[in-house]
Design goal:
With 342 residues, this protein is α/β, with parallel strands linked by helices. It has 2 domains: 235 residues, Type I PLP-dependent aspartate aminotransferase-like (Major domain) (Aspartate Aminotransferase, domain 2), CATH 3.40.640.10; 89 residues, Aspartate Aminotransferase, domain 1 (Alpha-Beta Complex), CATH 3.90.1150. The chain is built from 14 helices and 10 strands. The strands form 2 sheets. Strands 1-7-6-5-4-2-3 form a 7-stranded mixed beta sheet, with helices on both faces. Strands 8-9-10 form a 3-stranded antiparallel beta sheet, covered by helices on one side. The protein is globular, with a radius of gyration of 21 Å. It starts with 16 loop residues before the first helix and ends with a helix. Bound molecules: ligand TLP. The site of ligand TLP has 14 residues, from helix 3.
Length: 342
């Protein structure tokens, strides 16, 4: 395995040797004609794993969220989403630009929007108001600290969405991290959404892409929006092939990343660094102000130890992923403790 000493994100993962072989050997066709057997296999596999009728291979998580949201809304609708969700914060305002949609951000509780808050945010039918049509959920919730939302939480939101006539889209960029952390079959989580976007290119280590799954009707709509956004990819089997490896070989190993995140958090805490999140999956949010350090000090220490990282002010997010082993964490912590002591 190629080492990848990089805490910035799990998007930095490099493909496995099996993925590189699969890329070279992939059977190909023109996917815009529906004729790439490898893409078709990946879409079928993802749909089956998540218990949905159909799947759609897309270029990225951002594109997957965009086509899912478009498939479930009409121009001018209001959509409810968590105030710190990736769709709201980090997708270039695409829902406003591409969908002409009004976002209604709702502050969550560790990433979860409660049924009461959904009810409270929904506007009554009135000639002055936009139609509210969609609720977006994120699992795991990234900025809340990689928090896995539980089956019970998802069901509660789904039930209220059904009652209020809202569709549900799940940004499951890290849905397998959630399933592994909660020790549930991923279907138990995906059942409470009409569309789910899952990323192949994060902890699962594929180089490119996401899959959107849902009903045949919604996926047919999403496919057309993908084409509109320039996502008709022709012989895309070369990038779908590693996605198949991601889903068949890389899911269970996510548990290692979660153990390594805990190991890292415990070690950093012993050095006097504050842990800001509940470490449940592969993310550790830290604040190093108590060491008297600022971002430049943190970046310099990590650079000296051979790690890539980011920092802003006195804190940062550290991501664990394929390419980082527990030995690497021990070596990092030993090195950091020497720097802190010096
Ligand atoms: N997240 C990236 C950055 O964009 C922030 C990261 O490093 O965490 N949903 C969620 C919950 C995400 O975290 C991300 C990427 C996406 C969607 C978008 O996926 P891509 O990068 O494939 O468009």
């Amino acid at each position: 395995m190629e080492k990848n000493l990089d805490f910035r994100s799990d998007t930095v993962t490099l493909p496995t040797p099996e993925m590189r072989t699969a890329i070279a050997e992939a059977k190909l066709g023109d996917d815009v004609y529906g004729e790439d057997p490898t893409v078709n296999e990946l879409e079928r596999l993802a749909a089956d794993m998540l218990g949905k009728e159909a799947g759609l291979f897309v270029t990225s998580g951002t594109q997957g969220n965009a086509v899912s949201v478009l498939a479930q809304t009409s121009r001018g609708d209001e959509i409810l989403l968590e105030a710190n969700s990736h769709i709201y914060l980090n997708e270039v305002g695409g829902l406003a630009v591409i969908g002409s949609l009004m976002p209604k951000p709702i502050p969550g509780n560790l990433g979860w929007i409660t049924p009461e808050d959904i009810r409270g945010a929904l506007r009554p039918k009135n000639i002055h108001y936009p139609e509210s049509t969609l609720l977006c959920i994120e699992n795991t919730h990234n900025t809340a600290g990689g928090i896995p939302l539980t089956v019970e939480q998802l069901k509660a939101d789904w039930d209220v969405a059904q009652e209020l006539g809202l569709g549900v889209h799940l940004d499951g960029a890290r849905i397998f991290n959630a399933a592994v952390a909660l020790k549930v079959n991923v279907k138990e989580l995906s059942q409470y959404a009409d569309t789910v976007q899952l990323c192949l290119s994060k902890g699962l280590a594929a180089p490119v892409g996401s899959v959107v799954v849902g009903t045949q009707d919604l996926i047919t709509k999403a496919r057309k929006y993908r084409k509109m956004l320039g996502g008709g990819m022709r012989q895309a089997g070369v990038i779908a092939a590693p996605g198949i490896i991601a889903l068949t070989q890389m899911v269970n190993r996510l548990a290692k990343d979660h153990v390594n995140a805990r190991l890292l958090a415990d070690g950093l805490q012993k050095l006097g660094i504050k842990i800001l999140n509940h470490v449940r999956t592969n993310m550790v949010f830290i604040d190093f102000a108590d060491l008297g350090w600022n971002d430049a000090d943190w970046l310099a220490a990590c650079r000296q130890l051979g790690w890539k990282t980011r920092a802003r002010g006195t804190g940062t997010r550290l991501c664990l992923h394929y390419g980082i082993e527990s030995d690497d964490i021990h070596t990092f912590l030993d090195g950091l403790s020497r720097i802190v002591a010096s």
